[in-house]
Amino acid sequence: MAVNGAGAAPPPGANKTEVAGIHGDALKIRLAAAPVDGKANAALIAFVADRLGLAKSAIRLKSGQTSRRKVLEVVAAPADTAQRLLPDT
Fold first, then answer.
1. Which of 7, 21, 43, 76 has CB 3.0 to 4.6 Å from 33, enough for a Cys bridge?
2. What is the pLDDT, as a whole number, of residue 77?
């Protein structure tokens, strides 16, 4: 998984927003928000920002606005970004 341009494949409609693991070259994140009016995209950005301890403005949806597969860009990412995004074990 690349830190700058991390891929995510979030399935919408989960019971809670959480990291579900790694799927191929992407991080799988379950989203509780519905994919309506950009709510799922906003929830994804908020979740990743919170998980990394960054402001939401530090996370940008680089591609996948209407796709299930998203590419996020993390501005000023901490060195341990990938580790922070992995599921808790």
1. 43
2. 65
CA distance 47 to 50: 5
**Percentage of the chain exceeding pLDDT 70:** 76
| Domain range for 34 | 6-75
Looking up residue 34, the CATH number of its domain turns out to be 3.30.1200.10
The total of structural domains in the chain comes to 1
- Contact, 46 vs 38, CB < 8 A? no
What is the structure's pLDDT at 20? 87
- Say how far apart CA 6 and CA 53 lie, in whole Å: 16
Residue 28 burial by CB count (10 A; 0-12/13-18/19+): exposed, middle or buried?
A: middle
Does this model's pTM top 0.70? My answer is yes
